[in-house]
Amino acid sequence: MTHESRNADRDAATDALFKALSDGTRRALLETLVREGEQNVQALTQVSGVSQPMVSRHLAKLKRAGLVTARRAGRETWYAARVKGLGPVIQWMAIHGALWSQRFSALEGLSG
Amino acid sequence: MTHESRNADRDAATDALFKALSDGTRRALLETLVREGEQNVQALTQVSGVSQPMVSRHLAKLKRAGLVTARRAGRETWYAARVKGLGPVIQWMAIHGALWSQRFSALEGLSG
DNA sequence: CATATTCATAACCATATGATTATGAATTAA
DNA sequence: TTAATTCATAATCATATGGTTATGAATATG
After folding, report:
1. Which domains does chain A possess?
2. For strand D, which nucleotides have at least one atom less than 7 Å from a protein CB?
3. Which nucleotide is nearest to B77 (CA to C1')?
4. A97 vs B103: CB contact, 8 Å cut-off?
5. Stretch B20-24: mean pLDDT, rounded?
């Protein structure tokens, strides 16, 4: 067993994912995409409170982390949330099996 | 409804939490605490692969985020994982109610 | 063709962050 | 009391990060 595989918390994909989620502006963008569905950069810029280039960069980071998809149509780029991308987060939280899972279920009631 | 409460993704606590989790070394420390239970800095340093001061700083950040507790005993400080601290992450993932929750349940099978 | 729109990238800046070594405070042990 | 242990903090450094404005490439429109 290698050092890498033994220590799942240092997995590169997981790292990228958590890093992508660690910024409020990016989480807000993601939330918008989940709420409103596929959006282009222009629309996301208006709702984001930051400049268009910054939105593009945030979206690029979300894409690299697997949290959004991009679809180019003419001069517009349409971004959409990629729910599956959260898989590693779930997996990380379940990493110790029963321990987290129990709390997990217990806390799921919070969602309402 | 305030701007703050409307935009849950920019909540300061959530931000601190995700930021705390966004570093592999910190996640590894947290994993160790979950697996092995309460540990002092010395023990955590040996398993972390970074210097003792860095471990102290990472632990401080985890503590500020509510993910660990610290108990001073003589010259040693014993840190423990604080499972409840993950609440906001769960909450964030459930933020859009049914949408995430469905995927949530679907993905929970991954944990095995 | 000329102009406007949409987006990404470049250049730049300030600050945050992860890491190190050095140091110092507090506690324990000799 | 002197020495060793444990931990946190300071000083320092390199790099990453979030933000801006400027620019340029591609596409659509007059």
Report:
1. 3-83 (1.10.10.10)
2. 5-11, 17-22, 25-28
3. D7
4. no
5. 96
